[in-house]
Amino acid sequence: MAGLPDPELNIDVFDDRGRFVGCVDLAYPQQRVAIEYLGMLHGEQWAQDVERLAALRAAGWTVIEVTSPLLKRPDELVARVRAALHA
Question: DSSP states of 30-76 as a string?
Fold first, then answer.
């Protein structure tokens, strides 16, 4: 994807104590970068997603939230991922 390394798909994330934090759509585990798609059809799951993303951030992960409008700006999405990987 635009010169970026391939991310891992649907991986389980655990905190430093080994407790399950959540499953992420795409990830670069060594850099602790997660990419999560938040679609409009997730309406009922929205609150759970917010809590899961907060838990990922608390575990030291950078979370890039991807929405339908962002998918229409792929250069911006790639820039966000690249910046997170090089932070």
Answer: GGTEEEEE--GGGGGGHHHHHHHHHHHHHTT-EEEEE-HHHHT-HHH
Output the pTM of the full model: 0.88
Question: pLDDT tens track of the chain, all 87 residues?
Answer: 688 999 999 999 999 999 999 999 999 999 999 999 987 665 667 788 889 999 999 999 999 999 999 999 999 999 999 999 997
Contact of 65 with 34, CB cutoff 8 Å: no
| φ, ψ for residue 27, nearest 5 deg | -155, 150
Give me the amino acid identity at 5. Answer: P
